[in-house]
Design goal:
Largest sheet: 3 strands, antiparallel
Shape: extended
Number of domains: 2
Strand order of the largest sheet: 1-2-3
Oligomer: single chain
Number of strands: 3
Number of helices: 12
Helix content: 55-70%
Length: about 325
């Protein structure tokens, strides 16, 4: 049934999030009953080619998903899922300048933020909506995508990602990060609060050194977990809780550093004193918002842990 699982996963990608699981369960049960009925008639198990033909007769995943979505006239049901996906991506891109302006305003002052960053998103959203709609109306009229969906091959569907799996690349990255951080600290880059360079001198908060000592300790504690994940890439409850505690420790250490005001003085070559002072000013601004930053980090860490715990609860133990 691997081919059926891949088919259901492909259909789910195009379904609305609110009804995705219910529709997928209904579709999976429908396909399973159809396969069992045919197998009873043939008095044998269906081959992979026969299952592929059965799925192909049902239609491409995007087309099947469109049958469960509201029907529109301008944009046909066969391309509606793609149309909605493209609109979401374009909207995110158009809203990016507004997000940048919102982040930059506290540090540079709202009067210094270019006004077009605040007015552009609304105009861009309207223009993008019109352009995307026109393009998809043309695609619908010419029948470009529907023609392609008739020739799809079920055997080329991507494999289903197992719930609770850990990417080995992430585990390798954690181990490499630990080694790099250890080297940087032992090499002296993070073991004293003064950084000297060619015609430059930066004085950092006294918290700088103990902060990196704490971070290095947490990363060293994290390394055995990363090694365990590398050879057994599956989330379990103890792993999730340990990862959450380590990450919360990092968030607390980050708050400790930021609230101390990281930069105390900056001297860089021919850089005017008032420009150098801006680095110190920005550092002090980070100190003001240290609690907000650390709180956001902690919230993300806890949400990720809850999502992983939910994933563990909803599936049986996975093989390594």
């Amino acid at each position: 049934m691997d081919l059926v699982e891949r088919y259901i996963a492909a259909v789910k990608f195009w379904l609305p999030a609110a009804s995705r699981d219910d529709i997928a369960a209904e579709l999976a049960e429908d396909i399973r009953c159809e396969i069992e009925e045919i197998e009873q008639q043939k008095e044998r198990k269906l081959t992979e080619d026969e299952i592929a033909d059965l799925l192909k007769a049902r239609g491409a995943p995007m087309v099947v998903a469109s049958r469960y979505m509201p029907q529109r006239s301008l944009i046909g049901p066969e391309i509606m899922p793609v149309y909605l996906l493209v609109l979401k991506i374009v909207a995110a891109i158009c809203l990016l300048p507004l997000v940048i302006a919102w982040i930059a305003a506290p540090y540079f002052g709202s009067e210094n933020v270019p006004s077009h960053l605040l007015t552009t998103p609304a105009n861009s959203l309207l223009t993008a909506f019109a352009v995307v709609t026109i393009i998809f109306a043309i695609i619908e009229r010419e029948g470009i995508i529907p023609a392609k969906t008739r020739n799809w091959n079920p055997k080329k569907l991507p494999p289903v990602k197992a719930r609770g799996r850990i990417k080995r690349a992430d585990s390798i990255g954690d181990i490499v990060s630990c080694l790099v951080l250890l080297w940087l600290f032992l090499a002296g880059y993070m073991s004293h609060p003064d950084i000297w360079g060619p015609s430059s001198h930066v004085t950092l908060s006294p918290v700088w050194v103990p902060y990196w000592q704490v971070m290095l300790t947490l990363v060293v504690l994290e390394t055995p977990l990363a090694a365990a994940n590398l050879f057994h890439p599956v989330w379990t409850v103890p792993k999730i809780l340990l990862r959450m505690l380590i990450d919360l420790g990092k968030a607390a250490a980050t708050y400790w550093l930021l609230q101390s005001g990281v930069m105390r003085s900056v001297e860089i070559g021919q850089l005017p004193a008032h420009d150098a002072a801006r680095f110190v000013f920005f550092s002090q601004q980070f100190a003001v918002y240290a609690g907000v930053i650390a709180g956001a980090m902690a919230a993300i860490i806890i949400v990720m842990a809850l999502v992983r715990l939910l994933g563990v609860a909803r599936r049986p133990a996975l093989a390594p």
